[in-house]
Structures are given as structure tokens and as C-alpha cells.
Amino acid sequence: TKKIGVLALQGAVTEHILSLEKLGARATAVKLPADLDGLDGLIIPGGESTAIGRLIREQHLEEPLRTFFEAGKPIFGTCAGLILCSTDRSHPTGDLRLGFIEMEVERNGFGRQIDSFEALLPFEGIAEPVEAVFIRAPYIQSVGAGVTVLATIDGKIVAAETDQILVTAFHPELTDDLAVLQYFLEKVNQGSTNGRTVH
Ligand code: GLN
């Protein structure tokens, strides 16, 4: 069984852990650098990206997260986690951007009136449309080379990936539909042999 960490500084942490356990994975909360040891993959959850970024710095997790990324471990950023994983520089502020996946992001991109909504979303690589819950969600304005778009809504990109990184603008852990989390677990399972010769 693979062991997945969920960054547990702020936001939708418990829901991710319960959903991962339903899928048969081992899931653990990550609050300190040492909690990253021995993980096969990591989820950076939704919440508030400015707050999570500030807490990452306060807990001295920025460098350990970068080391985890450089080790080739799969990472899944949902909603605020998507913003944190991006290289976005469209709104230059002091906010943390880990730069794990090249994309420009529009924060709160669906407007203030439409605070939250649900959609049945066609998703590349998943046979059935997925139940997607959007809460003050960002969307992806553009992606860099090597980034594949997985889902759009009204022409706005809401899911994308590289070999290593998965991001969704929605919360896959807030419905009973576990297909997107399953999709991430498959990435984790493939990750163990990526780039290596198996004898
Ligand atoms: N609007 C939040 C932000 O900008 C993200 C919302 C979410 O994660 N559900 O960080």
C-alpha cells in the first residue's frame, strides 16, 4: 500500500484523509518537515492559499516541500493547493508559489456571485464525468509546455497535469465520487518506476 501525506496546516484536510482511506491507501497528516519522510505522494488541499503559504513558511516546510518535489514524488494540488503549486506570477505579491507546474492562475476566477457550485465534469483519462465541487475556485488561464489540460468548464481550464503533478480547481474530496483521487493514486503507483529501468 502506498502512503500519501495531506498537508495539514489549514483547509480541507480530514476529507482527503477519509477519501484516501476509502480507496485503500494509507493517509497521514503532514504538519512538520519530518512528516514527509517515507511518503509516496502528497496532497496540498483547498483552503486559503495566502494562509497556507504563510503557514508553510512559518513551519519551515518550503525547502522540504521543494526537496520532496525534486525527488520526483507525485503531488496533487486542489483549489488553493493548485494556486500554491503553480508558477503563477500574474499577481506579483509576497504570496508563496512553489512553482511545481507551469501555469498562470486566476484566483477566485468564477466571480463573487458564483461563490460555489457543483458540476458533472468530463475529465480526460476518466471514463465517466466526475462530480466536481467548486468553492471560490481559481481557474487556469494558460499552461506551459509539458502541461496537459484534463478538464475545462465554459472554456476555463480547471484540471491539468504533468507526469508528476496533478492540479484541480475543484475539491475532489467533498463528494462520494472518488475517481479523481483514484486517478492520483494511479500516478503514485506509476511514480515508483518512472525514469528508472526495471530489471
Ligand atoms: N479562493 C481560495 C484562494 O484563493 C481558494 C478556495 C479553495 O481552496 N476552495 O486561496
Strands, helices and their partners?
Layout: E1 3-7, H1 14-22, E2 26-30, E3 41-44, H2 49-58, H3 62-70, E4 75-78, H4 80-85, E5 103-106, E6 116-123, E7 126-135, E8 139-143, E9 148-153, E10 156-161, E11 165-168, H5 179-191
Parallel strand pairs: 1-2, 1-3, 3-4, 4-11
Antiparallel strand pairs: 5-8, 6-7, 9-10, 10-11
The protein binds glutamine (GLN).
The site of glutamine has 12 residues, from helix 4.
Plain-language structure description:
This is Pyridoxal 5'-phosphate synthase subunit PdxT. With about 200 residues, the protein is α/β, with parallel strands linked by helices. It is built from five helices and eleven strands, in the order βαββααβαβββββββα. The protein is globular. It has one domain (about 5-190): Rossmann fold (3-Layer(aba) Sandwich). Strands 2-1-3-4-11-10-9 form a seven-stranded mixed β-sheet. Bound molecules: glutamine. Glutamine binds near residues 46, 48, 135 and 136. Glutamine binds near residues 108 and 135.
